[in-house]
Design a protein that fits this description.
The protein has about 140 residues and is an all-alpha fold. The chain has one domain. It contains six helices and no strands.
């Protein structure tokens, strides 16, 4: 529920009157929705490292993050397999982790988890691109 609650904060912020958006624009990045993303990416990296060390890993999120295991599984697979970083591979990943696992797209409040996943993927891809550019 943390993702849904934090998304509600973003939605409320963006619904504010136009004149207050300009003065409060830096504030939006401090909302929980955006501060959760680096935590998910860090956890995905830790899981990938465990897998690279030959350890078996099972992803099961509990508590307030019980619905976010699909987000985490998506990030881990993007990190660990270059195929999923292609357009065709990404479509396969969405189908495999979201459609086949029965994500309730119609019951997901305005696609909150799906939007969260897409934003997390975007942040991850930007970070990977920056790492590549820094090492060239």
């Amino acid at each position: 529920m943390a993702v849904r609650t934090s998304f509600a904060e973003v939605k409320a912020f963006c619904s504010a009157r136009a004149e207050t958006l300009d003065s409060n624009a830096p504030h939006i990045l401090s909302l929980n929705f955006f501060t959760l993303i680096p935590k998910f990416i860090e956890l995905a990296v830790r899981i990938m490292r465990e897998m690279l060390n030959g350890n078996a890993v099972m992803i099961e999120c509990a508590g307030q993050f019980y619905e976010t295991d699909g987000v985490l599984a998506t990030l881990v697979q993007l990190l660990s397999d270059g195929y999923f970083r292609t357009v065709k591979g990404f479509c396969t990943l969405i189908e495999k982790e979201w459609v086949y696992h029965g994500h309730a797209f119609t019951r997901d409040n305005e696609g909150t988890l799906f939007l969260f996943m897409f934003y997390a993927v975007w942040v991850l891809m930007v970070r990977l691109l920056l790492l590549l550019l820094l090492h060239c």
